[in-house]
UniProtKB/TrEMBL annotation:
CDD domains assigned: AdoMet_MTases
Catalytic activity, reaction form: uridine(1939) in 23S rRNA + S-adenosyl-L-methionine = 5-methyluridine(1939) in 23S rRNA + S-adenosyl-L-homocysteine + H(+)
Lineage: Bacteria, Pseudomonadati, Pseudomonadota, Gammaproteobacteria, Oceanospirillales
A GO molecular-function descriptor: RNA binding
SUPFAM superfamilies noted in UniProt: Nucleic acid-binding proteins, S-adenosyl-L-methionine-dependent methyltransferases
Sequence ranges assigned to domain TRAM in this UniProt record: 31-90
Family to which this protein belongs: Belongs to the class I-like SAM-binding methyltransferase superfamily. RNA M5U methyltransferase family. RlmD subfamily.
Compositionally biased spans, kind Low complexity: 24-38
GO biological process: one example: rRNA base methylation
Coiled coil: none
Gene behind the chain: rlmD
Name this protein carries in UniProt: 23S rRNA (uracil(1939)-C(5))-methyltransferase RlmD
Amino acid sequence: MAMLGKRRPRRERSGVSGLQRRQAAPTGGAPVPPAGDGLVTIERLAHDGRGLAHGADGKALFVEGGLPGERLEVAIHRHRKRFDEGHVRAIVEAAPERVVPPCEHFGRCGGCDLQHLSVAAQRRHKAEVLVDLLARQGVEAPGEPQRLAGAGEGYRRRARLGVKVDAEGRVHLGFRARHTHRLVDITDCTILVPELDALLAPLHQQLAALEAPRRVGHLELLASDQGRVLVVRQLKEHESDRRRWQAFAARHDLHLARWLGRESPSLTWLTPAPSLTCRVPGAAGELTLGFAPGDFLQANAEVNRMMIATALSWLDGLAGSPLLDLFAGVGNFSLPLASAGAAVTAVEGSPAMVERLAANARANSPAHALQVDARQADLGQPRAVASLLAETSPATVVLDPPREGAEAACRALVASPVSRVLYVSCDPATLARDAAHLVHGGYRLARIAVADMFVHTSHLESMLLFVHPRAGQPTQGASPDG
């Protein structure tokens, strides 16, 4: 108890370079000192964006920061049974695609792991990853993927920033370091839209001025048609800090809301509650989507618009045709496809989002005559999807699932084929798994696109269009339960 109330002494760092600290090793595996370092040549990029090399014994080595063709001096920081993991100590021969990262936080912040690779090369890599993962599941891509890409910087319209108070009482605001829970202070972010990036420095000052910063869990930033939104996740009420947040919102012209509580937080507005909206393209003009903090909203508005336009282009002839949109959210695809004349049954698991989806359909219907039936269902259950297919008899099904994918829905679609399935995915591994179900169940992959939703990261968004030559005829031996 002798140290109670005293500052903890700083621990000395010995024998570890700044580069090694910034590229911290992931948890798990046995840490080793940088003994046995050596020169390697990077053969290609792995799916997660790390460079892949092989040692003299043939064992794979994944190198954070390595690019194809580079000759590198590497430090191994993890030995595993089937492969090792390392990071770059020195670049002996650089790849022509290597660039200077645009963000000063690169190498420490875990948000953007590919900033050292040119944007054009990033996009080629993502297309190759998708084609490769499909091929591993026995699904052949119908040619080079179409690429949907927008701005390389200033594109992200929402962000969640962690808040932490350290042992010495200093307040930190930022994103997590890669593979760790350690918070990296962020004072500016090249991928945030400028109006949100401009808030980072003032937020640092605001947090330092609070009486109880430890009661703040994280901050959420949103850019909407109505302006900037700040959502404070607060673990416990603090009256004077609440007034400080309201004064901050007034100074910076913000809409301010708060999630309050630990187990089941409730959302309240600390400024007049706005009706938040964003715009998306329709078949005959712009549509407006209402949303609330906590609803799913694509982070990159420009690329999202490209994806919707691609869906409208691929799914022609929708007038009067029944369409089932599963994992519909607040109507991101449902409303644009309904504006092209489809009779849409839009299904979502979240009751709150179903309500907003229905409200969005009503709000846009006077101008666009939309046919949208919003419903709630557990889409992880094959029988629930089978029931929807039997009831609605759709010619087209749209899937836009979370990272877990839509395996239950794909099994049901094999048992009860439809003419077309448009699958929008944020995880290429689960997409490849589900694509295999569809293709081996009689569908043909007809169109493929890669959407660069998160530039400078290895995150991959994609769109696949499947067609079935015998739609309406149950597949022999198939059942929705697989």
